[in-house]
Amino acid sequence: MEIKDILAPESMIMSLKATNKEDAIKEMADLEVKTGIVNDEDEFIKSIWEREHESTTGIGDGIAMPHARNKSINKARVLFAKSKQGIDFDALDGQPVYLFFMISAPAGADNTHLEALAKLSGLLVDPELVSMLKKAQTPTEVIDLFEQAEAQKDAEQVEAEKAAANDSLDKPLIVGVTGCINGIAHTYMAQEALIKAGKQLGANVRIETNGSEGVKDKLTAAEIKQAKGVVIASDKKVDMPRFDGKPLIKRPVVDGINKPDELVEDILQDKAGIYHSDEKVAAESEGGKQSFWNSIYQNLMNGVSHMLPFVIGGGILMAISFIVENYAGGPKSPAFIFLNNAGNMAFAFMVPILSGYIAESIGDLPALMPGFVGGFMATVYSGAYGGSYVANVLSNAKSPAGFLGGLASGFLAGYIVVGLKKLCAKMPKSLEGMKPMLIYPILSLLLIALVMYYVINPIFSSINFAITNFLNQMGTGNLVVLTTILAGMMSIDMGGPFNKAAYVFASGAFANDPNSKVAAVMMAAVMVGGMVPPLATAIGTTFFKNKFTEDERRAGVTNWILGFSFITEGVIPFAAADAAHVIPSCIAGSAVGGALVGMWRIGVPAPHGGLWVSPLANHILLYFVATIIGAIVAGVILGLWKKPVEK
Predict the structure, then answer these.
(1) Is 53 one of the catalytic residues?
(2) pTM greater than the 0.70 cutoff
(3) Centroid of chain to Cα 20
(4) 619 among known catalytic residues
(5) Burial, 181: exposed, middle or buried (Cβ in 10 Å; 0-12, 13-18, 19+)?
(6) Could you report the per-residue pLDDT of 423-478, keeping only the tens digit for each?
(7) Which of 53, 113, 180, 186 is catalytic?
(8) CATH of 168-289, one of 3.40.1190.20, 3.40.50.300, 3.40.50.2300, 3.30.260.10
């Protein structure tokens, strides 16, 4: 299939009316629907924005390539549009976009369509073609320009193949891989740009693509062995071990489009570090190193993404169990016991899963086991206390390390394994098989157990003990201050020591005197404080969608139910991903809700249940109002404070 088959005069806008990104996408989508390319505009626009939230498709040099591939698209098409004044499309170079190529591909698009799309994408790295497209006045001119460029590229490819046989031995070979999340455009643009850069700099470049069609032009073992170096320009996972021992540079796919000369030149000038697969580290050129905070974020996301199903599945079942408990059988009901136990079992895995997959992201598969064990210890064991002073201070501190301890154990386990790999790097090759089977599992388990048992758990247990002590000494003289503090503490660590200390203090007071009005008010404050965080994230993901990723928006829907049910842990994935914005926002909202509980003296004589137990409250309406106001305060602060995800 040729490019002209996916371009059509009726799918061109020679003068966009839109002046901003949102309106531009809407105007182009309207035409796609009008011409019959798309049958569900809302679904199509949603897909376009999902791709924009992953990373902008404004690739620079005045070009943007928004694209989507789903069941709402009837056939492959490239919509071409021009803007005379230029539109701020969040392009990578910060400059306005003048040329738009909206690529639409059906969910079941065949390879011929995808090859045509790939060819068009590759042509757009030619600055001369881009310049002429900016001057084009009619759809016919646009199609003619692409047909000429396509014919020229095909001719050049034939000549290049003839020349390759003669001069391939005289030029250094560079191999590489390009890939982007959707794999429609950027993958092939990066491939074309790197090959062109190689020609200009006197090198043969062979690129394997990982696009919508899967892996194409797969590199052979002989090519990799012969290559002077490797360039990885990909946002997708790449089969890396085959490049062990080669000079390697790893960058995002957009760098393959915008900085191909730099990447090729760094290989040719021996600026790339040597990649060692057993260390899971590509020693890159200085400009390509990942920042410390980006690395932390990626490791966190690996843990969070694996933890989410446990939070959602367990939380929903627990919420259903509360309905059964309160309205269909009570706490001894077999249905309640079954559902509550199932939900609690899922929750029991939450911190170990988080810890294990943070560790795996850092230290690869050998770090998974110590990460799991460290996370499990954070939820179960209280630790050991040595020395007379420490023993005296911590003698009553028996709580586990919880969520924060699980975070710490994940990073510790990961870096312990990385350290062990470096220590074992120079072992004789005859002993290679011992590393994954004996050395890594035994030493990593021993070290993480020692650190968790003697350091992490005691520290968090002591924090919990100190907080409980402080609350007990404070008393109930100033009820508003007390309820504000208790509710705010519920949001500090989302189920960790602060949260548990506040809950234990309130539930302990309630257990000692179930008829105490003050104890009932404290229980209400704790429940409002615990309901606010998940409700706040639900509000934020609903009304500030551009501030959250697609996974977070899905989790936000579930948090309506989790928040209603007093399951604070629903906000843990959000707090893990962006603690600096999420936790302070939630603390503020919870504190406001707690203050209202104390001021209105709202009492709930029940230790759990959230809003499901509202019929038990002395002021049912005010109980709802305090929760809603707190959630709105936290949700609005979070929504206004967070930066848009595409930024």
Answers:
(1) no
(2) no
(3) 27
(4) no
(5) middle
(6) 887 777 667 667 777 888 999 999 999 998 888 888 866 765 665 555 455 554 57
(7) 180
(8) 3.40.50.2300
